[in-house]
């Protein structure tokens, strides 16, 4: 029997259905965005900073090599451009980033670790002032600068970069089937490019004296772990034979196959045992999903043979 090719499931044909099905996800997304704003407004925990601790906090106050506005571009827009290029719905990656931002800022506010350049944030004129009893610092710098100085752990740049670009690395590994056991080094190089970019962002935070190395390591680990969980929630592992597509797509194929088989068996005069298999076809001419009937009797009739 001739192969039956499934029609394309575009945003125009299935967009409203998907939007209605995931309405609760968008509501949670909005709430997470509000929570992110609140966590950025409230003051962090002001950890004790004694005079003897200032030796490790006298690094120069520098500007950011990677500015704050560039983090969403690197962690969200850059992966989204790749996803759009292969017609991927971006909802998952936005969920990911709002979640990772909330986790990062919640930990920042709770820990309150001073940044490596805290001395110059606290004493911009270089004149040190300490409490005579507790020896705690008495800062006389700009309030907003001091507040930001207590948000060292973990690194937000690192967590967001590894969340977005780590998700992109997972995504590409499935799409190009990097673990197909054929030993293509070029595929691994493609996967390492997003991770290399995220690593460079993380290293810049140490070079700029905005974070300790422990902050960067924890932020990167946090971002990549969350990216991994989010990817495996929607996609099979990249080494799986079906690792190129999301779970929802294969579920749709199974439901479509059942509908085709059910409609064939509704007429008792034309009903017959049917065997249907789903085949992923990839060649130089075409890439797509096909459903074909593998009933041997019908195949023999179509070819003019009689058993």
UniProtKB/TrEMBL annotation:
<feature type="transmembrane region" description="Helical">
    <location>
        <begin position="66"/>
        <end position="88"/>
    </location>
</feature>
<feature type="transmembrane region" description="Helical">
    <location>
        <begin position="216"/>
        <end position="234"/>
    </location>
</feature>
<keyword id="KW-0472">Membrane</keyword>
<dbReference type="InterPro" id="IPR043216">
    <property type="entry name" value="PAP-like"/>
</dbReference>
<dbReference type="GO" id="GO:0046839">
    <property type="term" value="P:phospholipid dephosphorylation"/>
</dbReference>
<keyword id="KW-1133">Transmembrane helix</keyword>
<keyword id="KW-0378">Hydrolase</keyword>
<feature type="transmembrane region" description="Helical">
    <location>
        <begin position="26"/>
        <end position="46"/>
    </location>
</feature>
<dbReference type="GO" id="GO:0016020">
    <property type="term" value="C:membrane"/>
</dbReference>
<dbReference type="GO" id="GO:0006644">
    <property type="term" value="P:phospholipid metabolic process"/>
</dbReference>
<dbReference type="GO" id="GO:0008195">
    <property type="term" value="F:phosphatidate phosphatase activity"/>
</dbReference>
<dbReference type="InterPro" id="IPR000326">
    <property type="entry name" value="PAP2/HPO"/>
</dbReference>
<comment type="similarity">
    <text>Belongs to the PA-phosphatase related phosphoesterase family.</text>
</comment>
<feature type="domain" description="Phosphatidic acid phosphatase type 2/haloperoxidase">
    <location>
        <begin position="93"/>
        <end position="231"/>
    </location>
</feature>
<protein>
    <submittedName>
        <fullName>Lipid phosphate phosphatase 2-like isoform X4</fullName>
    </submittedName>
</protein>
<keyword id="KW-0812">Transmembrane</keyword>
<feature type="transmembrane region" description="Helical">
    <location>
        <begin position="185"/>
        <end position="204"/>
    </location>
</feature>
<dbReference type="InterPro" id="IPR036938">
    <property type="entry name" value="PAP2/HPO_sf"/>
</dbReference>
<dbReference type="Pfam" id="PF01569">
    <property type="entry name" value="PAP2"/>
</dbReference>
């Amino acid at each position: 029997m001739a192969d039956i090719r499934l029609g394309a499931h575009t945003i125009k044909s299935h967009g409203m259905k998907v939007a209605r099905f995931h309405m609760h996800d968008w509501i949670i997304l909005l709430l997470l965005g509000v929570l992110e704003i609140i966590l950025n407004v409230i003051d962090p925990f002001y950890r004790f900073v004694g005079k003897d601790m200032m030796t490790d906090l006298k690094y120069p106050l520098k500007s950011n090599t990677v500015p704050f506005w560039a983090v969403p571009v690197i962690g969200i827009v850059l992966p989204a451009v790749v996803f759009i290029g292969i017609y991927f719905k971006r909802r998952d990656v936005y969920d990911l980033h709002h979640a990772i931002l909330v986790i990062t800022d919640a930990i920042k506010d709770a820990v309150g670790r001073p940044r490596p350049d805290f001395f110059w944030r606290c004493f911009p004129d270089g004149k040190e002032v300490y409490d005579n009893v507790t020896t705690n610092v008495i800062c006389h710098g700009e309030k907003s600068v001091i507040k930001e100085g207590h948000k060292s752990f973990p690194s937000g740049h690192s967590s967001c970069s590894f969340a977005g670009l780590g998700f992109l690395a997972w995504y590409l590994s499935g799409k190009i089937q990097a673990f197909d056991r054929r030993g293509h080094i070029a595929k691994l190089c493609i996967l390492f490019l997003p991770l290399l970019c995220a690593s460079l962002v993380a290293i810049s935070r140490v070079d700029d004296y905005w974070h300790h190395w422990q902050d960067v390591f924890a932020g990167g680990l946090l971002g990549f772990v969350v990216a991994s969980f989010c990817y495996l929630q929607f996609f099979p592992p990249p080494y799986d034979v079906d690792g190129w597509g999301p779970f929802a797509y294969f579920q749709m194929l199974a439901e479509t196959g059942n509908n085709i088989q059910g409609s064939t068996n509704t007429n008792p005069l034309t009903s017959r045992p049917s065997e249907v298999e789903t085949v992923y076809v990839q060649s130089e001419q075409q890439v797509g999903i096909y459903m074909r009937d593998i009933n041997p009797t019908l195949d023999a009739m179509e070819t003019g043979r009689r058993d």
